[in-house]
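In the previous chapter we treated chains in isolation. Here, by contrast, the input contains four separate entities that must be folded as one system, with a combined length of 386 residues.
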Amino acid sequence: MSAGFEVFRDYVTRHTQLSEVDFGTLEAAAKPKKLRKHQYLLQEGDVCRYHCFITKGLLRTYAVDEKGNEHVIRFAMENWWISDRESLLTEQPSKFNIDAIEDSEVLLFDKSTMQMLTDSIPAFAKMVTGVLDKSFITSQTRIHEAISSTAEEKYNTFVQRYPGFALRAPQSMIASYLGIKPETLSRLRNKKH
Amino acid sequence: MSAGFEVFRDYVTRHTQLSEVDFGTLEAAAKPKKLRKHQYLLQEGDVCRYHCFITKGLLRTYAVDEKGNEHVIRFAMENWWISDRESLLTEQPSKFNIDAIEDSEVLLFDKSTMQMLTDSIPAFAKMVTGVLDKSFITSQTRIHEAISSTAEEKYNTFVQRYPGFALRAPQSMIASYLGIKPETLSRLRNKKH
DNA sequence: CCGTAACGATGAGGTATGTCAAGAAAGCAA
DNA sequence: TTGCTTTCTTGACATACCTCATCGTTACGG
C-alpha cells in the first residue's frame, strides 16, 4: 500500500466503517499523483475531471480577474478534498486554478469512478455527503465573517482556525484569501505590541 | 392536496422522477406552516430541528454581532430550502435567526423524517444531495465576489443574479447581505446618471 | 556561495466606504 | 384621510484600507 493511500485509509477510518473489500475497491480506484511546488492540478479553462484527496502538502484554489489580480478562494492541505465542484458537475471549463504551494501528493478519483464508489459503498457515499455538508457550513461561516468583520478580525480568526495555513502559506496569498492587500496584512501583523 | 404541497410537488418533479407512492410519503411527512411578516422560523439560541422548503414568501437568515448589528447571511424565497445546517447537524444552539420578510408559507421536515425519506427514496436522496452541492457552489461564488469586488460590483451582480430579492427585500437588508452600509447602497443606487 | 528574484516591511498620500445627523418619502394603523 | 413609524436620501466629515514607491530580507537555481 502506498504512503498516500495509507493517509486516505486513516482518514476514511476516522469518518466511517468499511470492510477490507471496500478498502480494496477504494485503493484500486485512487490514482496517486505527485505535484511539485507551483505545479497546477487544474488550470482555468480546463474541465475539472477529478475529486482530489490531498495526502501530503498544501494547495490553493484561486481566480484571476480582468486586471490580472489573483484571488485565493481557498486553501487545502493533508486530509482535505479539493476540486472545482462546479466544473466537475457541469463539465464546463473551470474559472479557477488549483496549484501546489508546497510539493504535494494527491489521490485522484474521476467523476465516474466516484459515482461507482458512492453507488456501491453506501457508507462511503454517506461520508462524502457529510464532507460536503461540512464544507457548506464552513462556507457560510466564511461568508458571515467576510461581510461582518474588519481586516484585523478576519486575520485573527483565520490564524486561530487554520494555524497550519497561517504558517505555511505566503502572506500575499493569505491576504488574498482574506480579501485585503499584502501591505495591509503586513501592517496588521507588525502592529501587535 | 394543499397549495403549499403543490408547489413542492412541482419542484420535486422538476428535479427528479418519483412514483405516486413516493409523493404520498413526502406529503405525509411535510408539516405546513404559515409565517406572518417578521415572524421567526428560528431564533438564535434555539436548536434548528427542521429542513424547511419555502412554498410562498421571502425569508432571511441573519446573525447579530456584539454591537447589535444585524448581518444578513442569505435570503430565500419560493422553491428554496432554508435551515441552519450547522445546528441541524450538531444539534447545538443556532447562532442565527431566520425570519419572514413577507407573509410566507413553508413545509417542515424534521431531521429524523428527512433521514427516513432519504433512506427510503434514493432518487429523493440524490436530489437533496444535488441541492446541497449547488448550494456549496453558490457559496463559493459568493465568497469569490466578497473578496474580489467593490461595493458597486457586488450590488450589480446581486441585482442581476437575484432580481427577486433585489425587488422584494428592503435596502437595509440588501446592504447588510452585501456587507456594506445602507447609506452606501443608497448612494450607489442613486448615482446612476 | 553567489546573484537574482520573490517576498515582506514601511512611508506618504489617495479613495472608497463608514459614521453621524437631518430631513424627505414611503408604509401602515386607526 | 390623518398621524406615526420606519425606511430611504443626502451632506459633512472620519477612517480603514488601498496604491505606489522604496528598501531590506529571504529563498533558491546555477
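The first strand of chain A starts at residue 31 and ends at 35. Residues 44 and 95 of chain A are 5 Å apart (CA to CA). Compare these points with the single-chain example from earlier in the chapter.
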